[in-house]
Design brief:
106 residues, alpha+beta, Arc Repressor Mutant, subunit A, 66% helix
Length: 106
Amino acid sequence: MNPHTQNAFRALADPTRRTIVQMLAAEDMTIAQLTDRFDMTRAAVKKHLTVLSDGGLITVEIKGRERINRLEPKGMAPILDWFSYFDQFWDDRLANLKEAIERNEK
């Protein structure tokens, strides 16, 4: 697994960061808006946002004094690609099982 994919998985490993991702999927938010929704300090929220940014899952747009956090859809691509391998794995396994059952029924 490449470092970029590892960073994306690391970012999603934490339940708070997964919640932030879900919130940003609904709307772009500032650090202040996110902090208002959690029982943690602004610094703690900022650390979570840094991990999400390092994982390529969010982008930050600076507008004046505000930092607008936005979900980066392309950031999910490495994770989805990694899981797609297992989709094919199970499709192949189930197809083999079906063939074996059909052979045994004859």
